[in-house]
UniProtKB/TrEMBL annotation:
One of its GO terms (molecular function) is sequence-specific DNA binding. One of its GO terms (biological process) is phosphorelay signal transduction system. Residues 141-370 form the Sigma-54 factor interaction domain. It comes from the Bacteria. It comes from Pseudoalteromonas piratica. It holds the Pfam family AAA_lid_14. This is Fis family transcriptional regulator.
Length: 473
């Protein structure tokens, strides 16, 4: 929709000249030759921008500025042939966005208009973001940490796009909440959000769950049934744990994503729907492609806008924000009150690594609320936390089950090294990475994932090792 510009200028030749400057931009322009004409127009219309002459026959442009509403007012650029510092200060004080002096050429006029409209767009974006993000909450997601701020920004940017969003992250990090946030921030938010957990549905029923079936399609199909694809028409279809889907069904899903058409099980009639796809997995989808469990063409079709949800252990003070929100909600559900957490309780929550992420935290909080009918929570009320290998947290050993051949010396044994045993660090690193690659059957991307580095890093190191070896000999 073209921007609407109101030009308030009493000299007809200048007004028409300014109007002609904007013809190449495709903007919609209106002219008011007096202050009263401008006010009458503004009483029934809201332009995106007002180009306002200061010297009008019936009133000053400043009088018009003063009468504009304080909230939800159009942006104003003041035009005058009598420029002075005092006039510029007054114009800005009354709410003008810019100030330009006559005579003005076409290029300067268009640049000023475009800059003012960009400010409008920026203000709308900030207001929209602030309306979604308040007090550490973004839709149903909670947290103010830098990693989550990055996630919120991706959601805001991608929400109204038709591109598929692929959410990855450990179990319990809130992938479905992230998918719901994408739906809530989009223009589809008045339409259905339908979620399917591909890992929770038996293999022989998942096609029916997604596409639906007709009566008699299989044993037990006593009625026609609408599937998730049909129910999500106009809205969002969320496919959780997508990498668990059977390969045969993946080909049907690919065709559905490409065409928007599908057939119910047992039917020969095609249906057309308009659906936004959001997918999620707690695995590395590219490793699943390499292992032959996930179609490569489906990967490229779906992995358009990736969102990596950080584990709870990497989110700092978010742990406390989430815990307080969960305590408040669960206490209310259980008919109890919650006033706060003691300092020792907060320290205990922050010190733990939460391998089960937010889901584990929620279960622990429900246990605490049910077994302790008190509004003030202290550390002693928490159930015992399962012990984790904190020495290796954030490393491959803590995140994945590495092959047995990838054993590393313990911290204690390193103290027993003699100076004659010490090798250059690059040689030790080379030996370890080569063992990782061998343990993964020479699959470099898989080894890179287990080592928590990118495959390109390994290839770069291999080239460096060759150079180091040449220099050594």
């Amino acid at each position: 929709m073209p921007n609407k510009i109101l030009i308030v200028e009493d000299t007809e030749s200048l007004a028409l000249l300014y109007q002609s400057y904007l013809i190449p931009t495709g903007m919609q322009t209106e002219i008011a030759y007096t202050g009263q004409e401008a006010l009458d127009y503004l009483a029934n219309n809201k332009p995106d921008l007002i180009m306002l002459d200061v010297m009008l026959p019936d009133m000053s442009g400043m009088d018009i500025l003063a009468q504009l509403p304080a909230n939800d007012r159009p942006r104003v650029v003041v035009l005058t042939a009598h420029a002075s510092k005092e006039l510029a200060v007054d114009a800005i004080r009354y709410g003008a966005a810019d100030f330009i002096e006559k005579p003005v050429d076409a290029e300067r006029f268009r640049i000023t208009v475009n800059n003012a409209l960009k400010l409008n767009s920026l203000s709308e974006t900030v207001e929209k973001y602030q309306s979604r993000y308040e007090n550490g909450r973004f839709c149903e997601l909670i947290g103010s940490s830098a990693p989550m701020q990055s996630v919120y920004q991706i959601i805001s940017n991608a929400a109204n796009s038709k591109a598929t969003v692929f959410i990855t992250g450990e179990s319990g990090t809130g992938k479905e909440l992230c998918a719901r946030a994408i739906h809530q921030c989009s223009e589809r938010n008045k339409k259905p959000f339908i979620a399917i957990n591909c890992a929770a549905i038996p293999k022989d029923l998942i096609e029916s769950e997604i596409f639906g079936h007709v009566k008699g399609a299989f044993t037990g199909a006593t009625n026609n049934r609408e599937g998730a694809a049909g129910m999500a028409n106009g809205g969002t279809l969320f496919l959780d744990e997508l990498c668990e889907m059977d390969l045969n069904l993946q080909s049907k899903l690919l065709r559905f994503i490409q065409t928007g058409c599908f057939q119910k099980v047992g039917s020969e009639q095609q249906q057309q729907v308009d659906v936004r796809f959001v997918c999620a997995t707690n695995r590395d989808p590219w490793l699943e492609v390499q292992a032959g469990r996930f179609r490569e063409d489906l990967y490229y079709r779906l992995y358009v806008i990736p969102v990596q949800l950080p584990p709870l252990r990497q989110r700092g003070q978010d742990v406390i924000q989430i815990a307080e929100a969960l305590f408040s909600r669960i206490a209310s559900e259980e008919g109890q009150k919650f006033e706060g957490l003691s300092d020792d309780a907060k320290h205990h929550l922050m010190a733990y690594s939460w391998p089960g992420n937010v889901r584990q935290l929620e279960n622990m909080i429900r246990n605490t609320v049910v077994l302790n009918n008190t509004a003030w929570i202290e550390k002693r009320m928490f159930p015992p936390f399962p012990q984790t290998n904190t020495a290796h947290e954030g490393t491959v050993a803590a995140q994945v089950s590495a092959p047995a051949t990838l054993s590393t010396p313990s911290i204690e044994t390193t103290n027993l090294l003699r100076s004659s045993d010490i090798e250059p660090l690059w040689i030790v690193e080379k030996r370890y990475i080569e063992k990782a690659i061998a343990a993964c059957n020479d699959n470099v991307p898989k080894a890179a994932a287990l080592l928590d580095i990118s495959p390109s890093t390994i290839y770069r190191k291999m080239k460096t090792w060759e150079q180091m070896a040449e220099q050594a000999y």
